[in-house]
Amino acid sequence: MFFTLNFQGNLNVLQPVHGEERRYSCDECGDSFSQDQILIARRHIHSGERPFCCIVCNKSFSCKRHLKTHQRIYSGEKPFCCNECKKSFSQQSHLKTHQRIHSGKKPFCCDTCNKSFSDQSHLKTHKRIHSGEKPFCCEVCKMSFSQQSTLKRHQHIHSREMPFCSDVCKKSFILKNHLKTNQHVHCGEKPFCSDVCNKAFSVQSTLKTHQHIYSAEKPICCDVCNKSFTCKSRLKRHQRMHSGEKPFCCDVCNKSFSEQSHLKTHRRVHSGEQPFCCDVCKKSFSHQSSLKAHQRIHNGEKPFCCDVCKKSFNTKSDLKKHMHIHSREKPFCCDVCKKSFSQQSNLKTHQRIHSGEQPFCCDICEKSFSHQSNLKRHQRIHVDVCSKS
Prior knowledge:
Structural class: alpha+beta
Number of strands: 28
Family: Belongs to the krueppel C2H2-type zinc-finger protein family.
Helix content: 40-55%
Keywords: DNA-binding, Metal-binding, Nucleus, Repeat, Transcription, Transcription regulation, Zinc, Zinc-finger
InterPro entries: TRASH_dom (IPR011017), Znf_C2H2_sf (IPR036236), Znf_C2H2_type (IPR013087)
Main location: nucleus
GO molecular function: DNA-binding transcription activator activity, RNA polymerase II-specific; RNA polymerase II cis-regulatory region sequence-specific DNA binding; zinc ion binding
């Protein structure tokens, strides 16, 4: 081998090897080389000339070796193999980076926080946390990102493109790793295991979050209110409270949401989908939380307890409504007569006095009522008449 490759800078791509006779000198930078073709390649770098062209995509290169490396994209050739795990790579530099996984070597260190990385590109991306640099900008909403991959993922929100499809359930995903997670669900695979309690997870990020239970570590902090979080995604969701950002938009009614899961739940309003089914009475629900609350009717569980009178409730919202009795708080006010109520449902019923609305209709005589209780009392008339006849 007569020369080495260094991809860290354009002018240092071809470095002369020590110990060889270097008869060919570059007039531009003063470097000397043992072979004339290496000198020619160096001159191409200085002049900007790229005489070696890919016949597939027409991309040009200053050095024939770089063209050869590029062509492996199309040929699929991966001549550099890891001795440890037999994984192959198209470039020697990629193999070298990969081998650091096995060795644990992290030679690239952040001079601000001393965090180390196995790859120089990872260090470069990390440094943007400290500098606040976000060089990748969305052309649609002008939102900026520190990583190109994050921008790419974000752009799927605007295009509504979901390129990764499960061949089992046909569900589509914006991200490849979401598809991978979905596949773990189908096969029941849980490859990520806690080394403390041996609990297994199908998603690596869930394991990572779980591990913070033992460490009590909350390393990610909100720069607005200083609240700490165990994972970056939770901080991101929290920050939307401060910014008011609602990036997830319903394509039916254009209502926007701060979280994708909230949009997913909202869409069931339009589709009528009720995927959560009670295994006791087969009643279906659009929300998992609604099913959970419903199941307490069957098991008699009332986990929400009033700390004033010790009365228990099966839903948190019922406890909240009950608390207004003790506080005498009446937060729901009629905008017509200014009468106040402790519960929103009572205000809604009251407002029918002003509107004249009678939504509860008898299916026998078609008489309408403003209260469901009044309809129920009325229906007894028909029951009594039928029983007498």
